[in-house]
Amino acid sequence: MPQDSAEKNNGNVGYLLLLTITAALGGLLFGYDTAVISGAVGFLQAHFQLSAGLKGWAASSALIGCIVGAMFGGPLSDRYGRKKMLLFCAALFALSGIASALPRTLTQFVWARFAGGFAIGAVSVLSPLYIAEIAPERIRGCLVSLYQLAIVVGILVVFFVNMIIQRMGSETWNIAYGWRWMMGSLTLPSALFGFLLIPIPESPRWLMKVGRKAEAETVLVRVGGREAADRELKQIEDSLNQEEGRFFELFTGGYSRALIVGVALAVVCQFSGINAIMYYAPEIFKSIGAGRDAAFTQTVSIGVVNLLFTFVAIWLVDRAGRKALLVGGSVVQVIALIAVGVMFAKGIGGLWLLIFIVMFTGSFAAAMGPVPWIVISEIFPTKIRGQAMSVATLVLWASCYIVSQTFPMLVDTIGNAKTFWIYALCSFAGLIFVVFVVPETKGKTLEEIEQSWSKSQGRFLPRS
User: What integer pLDDT is reported at residue 165 of this predicted model?
Assistant: First the structure.
């Protein structure tokens, strides 16, 4: 069969991967920009002579921007398109990197981080949304998981960058200049992201939503083939024709159940305490006796495990299903967090503490890290998917802010052990919610998932 004919029937997998990887680079910047603070915050605290509360504010200030970005990213993408908003985010990442490297006061630093946080919050809606809207249902979970993979790659890369920079000088040099180089290093990957976004097409579902059917058809044929494109075009048209697209519909009938699932998953994945590790790992290891260089090296090992177990999620999410991964990962999370608390209670650092923190990180990376993003990108109706994802993602970032802001204060007040036991209790609550409430979405088109909510009037769960 000629290549052009095969592509029309089966789609172009290489092109689909190119679009997915480009959009997923937003996740790399998300991971890079959120985790860069882990290496900088200790030096930043010394530079500006911050209290525990202000240290938490310096680390979590970007998350206020994330909340705002998540709030407006979806609605703006519904109006102007996914691609245009992703390009805007790339520019904002670059500007934030420069500005956060040059502040003279904590207030200036906070404003720079707020701008970067806005980009993170918006891209956390837009990248998985774009991928979900171009991906065939048979591999959608795997492709959206690439977004989470990009996040953990960004985290690992910046852990290495932070380690290298802190080795460039003494403690005094790092307090004066090292943290500035860490923060400014965001600029280069931001520019790369913007450059790669320029040639990619707009989301076909957004194009259909605004009446540009011919362009949507072209994209769908190229990524999935003619037969799949015709089927999806019909499903999208039927979906758009049946809906009025009013935002308040999310709070009524079957769609309110979708909102409950999305919001609750956003909360429990953050209240597990993962960002206490990602934002404060060097400080955690220093608190139990590790030296500066050892603390940064152990932090890199966490990033490596985070990356490796994300591949487990990518491999299993379209095989085992979303729910099975969430249940298994949550069980291991609870055990690991209890053990971390025990290590702190008994004053045991070194290898044993690292093992249990790595165990927690790996279980999160294989389940609660990527899967909520996948489910949130799948469960909402087409006409208001951007707005609905903004609600769930806003709650996610608000939860992340609470954890990041309160971690230093909790440690100062009740100690590391009880703090991690609180995270274990939250993880257990999340496990119960997943077992009894979260539906399975594996193998369904976005329109089939949407219809299952519509048919679930009077029932909490959609039909399988």
Answer: 94
For residues 380 and 20, give the distance between their C-alpha atoms in angstroms, rounded to a whole number: 20
Task: Write the single-letter amino acid at 265.
Answer: L
Name the stretches of the chain with pLDDT < 50. 1-3, 5-7, 457-464
Q: Contact 306/363 with Cβ under 8 angstroms? A: no
Fold designation for 11-200+243-454? Growth Hormone; Chain: A; (1.20.1250)
Asked if 360 contacts 333 with a C-beta cutoff of 8 angstroms, the reply is: yes
Using one digit for the tens of pLDDT, what is the confidence trace for 31-48? Answer: 898 889 888 888 998 999
pTM, full prediction: 0.74
Q: Where do the domains of the chain lie? A: 11-200+243-454
Task: Give the C-alpha separation, 168 to 349, whole Å.
Answer: 27
281: left (phi over 0), alpha (psi -120 to 50) or beta: alpha
